[in-house]
Amino acid sequence: MIIENIISESIRVKDAILSDAVFLQKIEKSAQLCVESLRNGGKIHFCGNGGSAADAQHLAAELSGRFYYDRPPLNAEALHVNTSYLTAVANDYSFDMIYSRMLDASGKQNDVLVAISTSGNSNNVIKAIEVAIEKKITVIGMTGECGGKMASMCDVLLNVPSTCTPRIQESHIMIGHILCEIIESTLFPK
Question: What does DSSP assign to residue 110?
């Protein structure tokens, strides 16, 4: 019974997204913002913590490697992949600074930051968004239902209609894969 309940709840959240025309338009807008950035020499930066960090790295790899088919690599990276940098900044400054310092160093106007936080309240993600705003980097936020502090800070907020962390994360990776597919097929049509 527990397995069926978990699967049913995951389907319910995805059905809510599927039936929300405004949410689907926000996914499409997010993909187009990424396409425009990449076409103009920009970079897609990703950040998140825990499972969201894993999703950030996963999605960056789908773009910089390949998704469905062979094509040139796209400029995308998760901000946490350099462990020496990460541990130095966390130790010397604070964990809250790990993403903002890297984005300040490598981000430029017209890049995109995909900021992932199920609560929308992760301090290090919020500080990265603050840097993105200062540098005129487009911010796409992926959160849970309420959006937390990130809700008012993002150019596009993809706030999954759930308060359950695992269901939110399952939807984040689904949305991320949709973005990757749209980006890849738009930039490299078959």
Answer: T
Query: 36: burial class by Cβ within 10 Å (0-12, 13-18, 19+)?
Result: middle
Nearest to 172 by CA among 58, 79, 96: 58
Say how many residues make up the chain: 190
What are the φ/ψ torsions at residue 76 (nearest 5 degrees)?
-145, 140
Q: What is the mean pLDDT of each run of 10 residues along the chain (190 residues)?
A: 95 98 98 98 98 98 96 97 96 98 97 98 98 98 98 98 98 98 96
Residue 188 near residue 71 (C-beta atoms within 8 A): yes
For the chain, percent helix, then strand, then coil, each to nearest 5?
60, 10, 30
Q: Given CA atoms 45, 158, 161, 5 in this order, what sign does their dihedral have?
A: negative
Q: Tell me the whole-structure pTM to 2 decimals.
A: 0.97
Asked whether the CA dihedral 98, 106, 129, 118 is positive or negative, the reply is negative
DSSP 8-state class, residue 149: G
**Residue 178, exposed/middle/buried by CB under 10 A (0-12, 13-18, 19+)?**
middle
